Amino acid sequence: MRPNSQNLFLIVFCLIQWAEAANVFFPLVLTWQNTSVAGNVRPVIHSNFQFPGPELRINQGDRVQFAVTNLCPFNVTVHFHGIEQLGTPWSDGVPGSSQRPIVTGQSFLYRWTATEYGAYMYHAHHRGQFEDGLYGPIYITPTATETRPFSLVATNNTQLQAMLAAERKTSPVLLSDWRLLTSEEVWAAEVASGVDSYCVNALLINGKGAVSCLPRALINSLITPNVQAVLGNETLTDIACFPPNVTIVQGDYPHNYDAIPPTMFSGCTPTQGEQEVFTVNANQQFVSWDLTSASGHLHLIFSVDEHDMWVYAIDGRYIEPVRVNAINLPNANRYSVLVPLNKPRGDYAVRLISGSQQQILNTTGILRYQGKPQLNRPSNPWVLLNGLNATADTVFLNDSQTIPFPVVTPSATVDQTFKLTIQHFNASYLWTLGNSSFNLELEESQPLLFNQTAIPSDLIIRTKNNTWVDLIIIHPIHKHSNKHFVIGSGTGAFNYSTVAEAMQEIPEAFNLVNPQIRDTTDTVVAIFEPTWLVLRYQVVNPGAFLLHCHVQVHQSGGMALAILDGVDAWPTIPPGYLLDSGFF
Ligand SMILES: *[C@@H]1O[C@H](CO)[C@@H](O)[C@H](O)[C@H]1NC(C)=O
Ligand SMILES: *[C@@H]1O[C@H](CO)[C@@H](O)[C@H](O)[C@H]1NC(C)=O
Ligand SMILES: *[C@@H]1O[C@H](CO)[C@@H](O)[C@H](O)[C@H]1NC(C)=O
Ligand SMILES: *[C@@H]1O[C@H](CO)[C@@H](O)[C@H](O)[C@H]1NC(C)=O
Ligand SMILES: *[C@@H]1O[C@H](CO)[C@@H](O)[C@H](O)[C@H]1NC(C)=O
Ligand SMILES: *[C@@H]1O[C@H](CO)[C@@H](O)[C@H](O)[C@H]1NC(C)=O
Ligand SMILES: *[C@@H]1O[C@H](CO)[C@@H](O)[C@H](O)[C@H]1NC(C)=O
Ligand SMILES: *[C@@H]1O[C@H](CO)[C@@H](O)[C@H](O)[C@H]1NC(C)=O
Ligand SMILES: *[C@@H]1O[C@H](CO)[C@@H](O)[C@H](O)[C@H]1NC(C)=O
Ligand SMILES: *[C@@H]1O[C@H](CO)[C@@H](O)[C@H](O)[C@H]1NC(C)=O
Ligand SMILES: *[C@@H]1O[C@H](CO)[C@@H](O)[C@H](O)[C@H]1NC(C)=O
Ligand SMILES: *[C@@H]1O[C@H](CO)[C@@H](O)[C@H](O)[C@H]1NC(C)=O
């Protein structure tokens, strides 16, 4: 019997589906090389001899074999930020939690399945090496059956097709901050001086940028009343940053300011550096970018002069698109945007500026239309160097107003609640999350995945599989493995023991209807009063995962906690991953 056309279609469709789920082998060789970044030479971790690392671009459903070979003169690991590691918790890349560090000269084979689509990132997860340049973008093309959100905003089919075409060609835009000191120099200086190192030296767009030294009068004119309130009688340093002696920020601990090296808080020498240029074709109507924060410390505000952006995905998941002019990216978050290419041909500044209170900093790229220029003047910014709006019309993205597409509702009740406080611990640069400080040496301990009692129990919380959990916390936090719902936030003390109790008193602070679905979330900075945040998640992927601040020096300073998810359904680890050293 001849198959009818519907059967034929199904057969072809199945073949395509089968062909789509490929095995992808991605070798990554890490080296430690002197390189000029932001116009200054320092040693940088290179990935396949480049900085930033090359893009891993795969299809949803692909099985990835990511083979890291460490040729650096120190131990490393690589984490896949936001990748849920369903059924592969041994490939999460966290030393002391899911693996032993990869020693010099050895290789490690990470294996995971790209279960979810969207924009992610791989990056170092050993000591402070994230700030030494080990990061690169990951893009997972959604399956054809995944519903795109563009028809919600396209005005006609032509425009819809242009949006879909732009998404198919989407490219990563890696945004980061940069220090002139290496991560180990920063750590050594923190230990010697006792201070928390919260300034950087440059911002980078796709690894390109420069050090600019703003004139003193300009710096002073950009100090907002909020910043002055924190500074008290002090002023910003010549790198436009808080000095190291602001007690309200550093806490009341002993400090040895003489042990602070040049450039850590002050010492500005301008450089030329490189500038990123994005060449676009107006005929395509839109360009799609996956804005990815690889920032070690500062929040970053991204905007393109005179252009709008349709934000259509956050942390690798679609949202109902929103039209904005500027986005404040917390550390390690990803925002996918469509930029309408509807302005006169010419060059427009792509601006990256500090969104953190403690420092005024910026870098500039160029959006360049192909063809004979029609614009013969400098483009106009949406945002001032201090993060304030430069025009009355500037629209900033408000994350708490974004709506996932499709909406997913979390459980109305939970099985466990953990209240985790964040505090300085014994020194300005040391921190607790929960009751204790997760010190850096624990990265060298036996991985918790292999031994659930390898580290002290006050650094661990335990959950059961297929239960719902609330984490009530403050400060920028990233939970490994599965995504979480952001169900509530606020300022002031959180004087309740559960969300159910709080919802009786302050229901307006919670959203259980269409909450954001994220893998990394931050709260309002807590300086004059505490702030709180509630994350709710379902345990579906047993394994040892880390909950930590994504400000690198805060994580190094102990602001982390191990979560043993699904202790009642603990995974059996493949023998190769149990070895004490590298596995290939
Ligand atoms: C970088 O250059 C400095 C100065 O020449 C040198 O001392 C250092 O060993 C170099 N580092 C690396 C990783 O090559
Ligand atoms: C590097 O990792 C190996 C394997 O876990 C460990 O034995 C060694 O102590 C580590 N080296 C350093 C300098 O931490
Ligand atoms: C589709 O909509 C765009 C934007 O509103 C408009 O510029 C264009 O002319 C429309 N195209 C058609 C074919 O209607
Ligand atoms: C700031 O300076 C004024 C005048 O010298 C002084 O009275 C005040 O105590 C100072 N404030 C702080 C926080 O040091
Ligand atoms: C803080 O440091 C600044 C810059 O080094 C200095 O001018 C100021 O006197 C210091 N303030 C205090 C209270 O030590
Ligand atoms: C930062 O902004 C200033 C003032 O607009 C500008 O002169 C400087 O070139 C910018 N820095 C970079 C690295 O783009
Ligand atoms: C910034 O926005 C506020 C509120 O809309 C407005 O009052 C102010 O004039 C804007 N600033 C500039 C420089 O346009
Ligand atoms: C963002 O939206 C939330 C919820 O609507 C609102 O409470 C908050 O004030 C908004 N934030 C800003 C900065 O406008
Ligand atoms: C806290 O600091 C003091 C003084 O530096 C030190 O003696 C003590 O061991 C530290 N405590 C911990 C738990 O690290
Ligand atoms: C697990 O770790 C604890 C604490 O270090 C240790 O006493 C115990 O022997 C370890 N168990 C195994 C099976 O290695
Ligand atoms: C912190 O200490 C409190 C009080 O002893 C305890 O109830 C809680 O479980 C501890 N939290 C963690 C994460 O260990
Ligand atoms: C854990 O729970 C999830 C959600 O119910 C389930 O899909 C998964 O199979 C469970 N895992 C194990 C190892 O039991």
From TrEMBL:
Signal peptide (from-to): 1-21
Family: Belongs to the multicopper oxidase family.
UniProt keywords, alphabetically: Copper, Glycoprotein, Metal-binding, Oxidoreductase, Signal
One function term, GO molecular function aspect: copper ion binding
InterPro entries tied to this protein: Cu-oxidase-like_N, Cu-oxidase_2nd, Cu-oxidase_C, Cu-oxidase_fam, Cu_oxidase_CS, Cu_oxidase_Cu_BS, Cupredoxin
Name of the protein: Multicopper oxidase
Gene3D superfamilies per UniProt: Cupredoxins - blue copper proteins
Ranges where the Plastocyanin-like domain occurs: 31-143, 172-371, 460-565
BP-aspect Gene Ontology terms: pigment metabolic process
PANTHER family per record: LACCASE-RELATED, MULTI-COPPER OXIDASE
Pfam families (UniProt xref): Cu-oxidase (PF00394), Cu-oxidase_2 (PF07731), Cu-oxidase_3 (PF07732)
